[in-house]
Amino acid sequence: MRHLPQELVIIILEHGYYTSLEVPDRAFLATCSLVCTSWCAPAQSLLFREATKLQAFTAAVLSPSVRGILLGSAVRSLGISVGLYELALDAHSVCKLDQVVLAGLKEPGQGIRALKLLVYGTAWPMLSQLLGIWSRIQFLNVQQYRSTQDWLEREGASVALYELTLLGRSNRTSQPALLPWLLASSSCSLRILHLDHLPEAGTAARTMLELHAPRLRSLRVHIYNMDSAAFIRQCTVLEELAINYIPPMAPSASELPPSIEHLFFSVVSRDDMASRFLLETIEVLPKLRVLSHDYSAVHAKPFHILKARCVENEVPVMQYRRNWSEHYPVVPKRFPRTRTISDLQLMTS
């Protein structure tokens, strides 16, 4: 048997794939996978094409072996449990779900509260479809690489979001249409907003965000300049602010809301005004409890002085060795957020 050409092995396996009831013959495939080494891989690939027993599926696919990774790539159909809380999808090769698939996903996904979606240009219609059938989603993380706006429906998304993260290369071009659509039903619910770039002042998207600003608890922006500072000033109850880049000629820290308890920063210009901004934060933010940064920030010009000031004011300095925004999608009690067992217990539908 092991000397049969691989093409013939695959033909044999595919011929016996379905039972007379047109369901996969798992017993047949499992037996074939034990025949010999040359039969094992193709038989297991067919066996995992439709994964309905999630516990057994994850045990195999998440194993450290190379074979587990290959089995994961073979899956085309995955049955999920009704109690699923968070779902992460990579829509690399999927543009739009057909109606049969959409109908099958609707009921099992009613408990989903958090959706993380890696979207490519042709996959935007799928986001619209998923938000249409899973209206209880509160935490949405969309990472985009190419944009297209022609799919946006006139009626906005029906989800009431608590947290929206929108990151990616196409952010600037897609935001003017995308943000008003995503936030159409979130006027009273949005509390956490993470963006690579703020929409330009005066645009409809920016005007909408300004309506949300007084209720935001956490905000992430790419750069701290005059434009972003004007928006941040409107966030009067802000508890957490994350800034990716502090540029030359950065505005004064006195522009920041005094309610901030956690400040995160990454890249800092070597300009004196950027350095002044960091040092000022310790003095002008009376509620500041934690100052955090990533590994690149330790090279900032005033970093050693900043740490000394923090020690004097009893403000802990934390360095994130992972993405600072990686956390469980639940309503946080305080910032910065951390991963805890109690958060996992909150992730129920």
**SS summary, helix count:** 13
Helix content: 25-40%
Beta strand %: 15-25%
Secondary-structure element order, N to C = HHHEHHEEHEHEEHEHEHEEHEHEH
Q: Oligomeric status of the shown chains?
A: single chain
Distance between the termini: 50 Å
Question: How would you characterize the overall build of this protein?
Answer:
- The chain is α/β, with parallel strands linked by helices.
- It has 13 helices and twelve strands.
- The chain has helices spanning 6-15, 26-32, 37-47, 54-61, 66-74, 99-106, 124-133, 171-182, 204-212, 226-233, 272-284, 303-312, 341-346, and strands at 50-51, 77-78, 86-91, 114-119, 139-144, 163-168, 192-195, 218-223, 240-246, 262-268, 290-293, 317-319.
- It has a ten-stranded parallel beta sheet.
- Helix 3 (37-47) packs across helix 5 (66-74) and helix 11 (272-284) runs parallel beside helix 12.
- The longest helix has 13 residues, at 272-284.
- The chain is elongated, with a radius of gyration of 25 Å.
Write a concise synopsis of the structure shown.
The chain has 349 residues and is an alpha/beta fold. The chain is built from 13 helices and twelve strands. The strands form two sheets. The protein has a ten-stranded parallel sheet with strand order 3-4-5-6-7-8-9-10-11-12. A two-stranded parallel sheet has the order 1-2.
